Amino acid sequence: MRSIPLFSLLLAGWFVVPAHADEAQDWLARMGQAEQQQSFRGTFVYERNGSFSTHNIWHRVQDGKVRERLLQLDGSAQEVVRIDGHTQCVSGTLIAGLGDSPNSAARALDPQKLKNWYDIAVIGKSRVAGRAAVIVSLMPRDQHRYGFELHLDKETGLPLKSLLLNDKGQLLERFQFTQLDTAKVPSDSDLQAGDDCKVVTLDSDKASAVKTAQVWHSDWLPPGFELTSSSARKDPQTKTQVNSLMYDDGLARFSVFLEPLNGATVTDTRTQLGPTAAVSRRLTTPQGEMMVTVVGEIPIGTAERIALSMRTDATATK
């Protein structure tokens, strides 16, 4: 799961008089702590574009490490194992939104920061997987990000359900536990990856990450989004270097990929799959033609503007 995972339900809760914002921020802080302190096991459903999938999850916090295993129960066999947010192995192609990038470490939520970009409020109560929950809404203050509705477990603060909503209140993505056990800590065997789970290796290193951050920047970013990581790797097919940069606002996240075309003929594209936008644009730079691709859970118009804003830092390439 993501740090602010995928998690929420019907809009009846929106008509409840919001509680004081401080209470909502306290619940968000508690949620962030729970995912770093609370072991659990459970089953959840994930929905996007009208398609559902069911997953088992084992999440263990022990000796300062958070180890997690996800296993899809229907459709093609898909599995992922993570330690402290870093993907260790993957089998199949895990559904977008559940996988995240291999080097995306878990982040601590900062409610004080989030309130600059979202209106945060407790809007009601609910019951999920047989457990009492508090509903917290995060509504964006601009058109460059989506809204969340989180159903947080009253006992532990864990997210039991999450809805991701667009500016019209339409559901883009849903995560919801159907069963959750916080009493029994997952065992070593529960967290052991299957034979088909292939080890994930990263081609980038610290030096290439620093170089990437120096060479590429964006002339425009939505308010609140900051560069959190960058890396460079060689594409196994084209043998060219692909630079990647990741940005987030403390909740929403998107990635930018930049690859030289080397004379290849490509076309600009823009696609939307549920909450995930993917926009590719050709850019002419002093180093030649580049393909810039922006992928993330942001509105497609925002993704397109970011793609067109990418620039090289000429002083870093001399």
UniProtKB/TrEMBL annotation:
GO terms for molecular function: antisigma factor binding. Keywords: Periplasm, Signal. CDD domains: RseB (cd16327). InterPro entries: MucB/RseB_C, MucB/RseB_C_sf, MucB/RseB_N, MucB_RseB. The lineage of its organism: Bacteria, Pseudomonadati, Pseudomonadota, Gammaproteobacteria, Pseudomonadales. Its main location: periplasm. Belongs to the RseB family. The keyword Kinase does not apply. It comes from the Bacteria. Residues 1-21 form the signal peptide. This is Sigma factor AlgU regulatory protein MucB. GO terms for cellular component: outer membrane-bounded periplasmic space. The keyword Nucleotide-binding does not apply. One of its GO terms (biological process) is regulation of polysaccharide biosynthetic process. Residues 212-311 form the MucB/RseB C-terminal domain. It comes from Pseudomonas fluorescens. Residues 23-192 form the MucB/RseB N-terminal domain. It is found in: Periplasm.
